[in-house]
């Protein structure tokens, strides 16, 4: 949720160019999840691996690992953006369709859930940042 929301806020959407994964990870840990960068990047990578999720929520350029268990390249070498289906998870979020709460340092707010127009939990499973 936080990764997708942060990418949407920064305009890193499917119709635009790819951006460095490290930039997104920095935005997420700086604004919404003040913990280790590796857990955020690993969650981003998982959402980009078509052998782990049915519908990829993030498109990634560069080495994002392999089905054989090879690790992904470091975040400074990969680029990412939201996939087109992610737009369906975030559509109308600015129209107060879901509740928002203050972020960890009260400098902005984040959604408690996404307004999802498709059942992401059923489609892709439940593994997230804490996986």
UniProtKB/TrEMBL annotation:
Pfam families: DNA_topoisoIV (PF00521). It catalyses: ATP-dependent breakage, passage and rejoining of double-stranded DNA. SMART domains: TOP4c. Residues 1-131 form the Topo IIA-type catalytic domain. GO terms for cellular component: cytoplasm; DNA topoisomerase type II (double strand cut, ATP-hydrolyzing) complex. Gene3D superfamilies: Topoisomerase II, domain 5. GO terms for biological process: DNA topological change. The keyword Isomerase applies. SUPFAM superfamilies: Type II DNA topoisomerase (SSF56719). One of its GO terms (molecular function) is DNA binding. The active site is at residue 77. Keywords: DNA-binding, Isomerase, Topoisomerase. Coiled coil: none annotated. InterPro entries: Topo_IIA-like_dom_sf, Topo_IIA_A/C_ab, Topo_IIA_dom_A, Type_II_DNA_Topoisomerases. PANTHER family: DNA GYRASE/TOPOISOMERASE SUBUNIT A, DNA TOPOISOMERASE 4 SUBUNIT A. This is ParC. It comes from Listeria monocytogenes. The lineage of its organism: Bacteria, Bacillati, Bacillota, Bacilli, Bacillales.
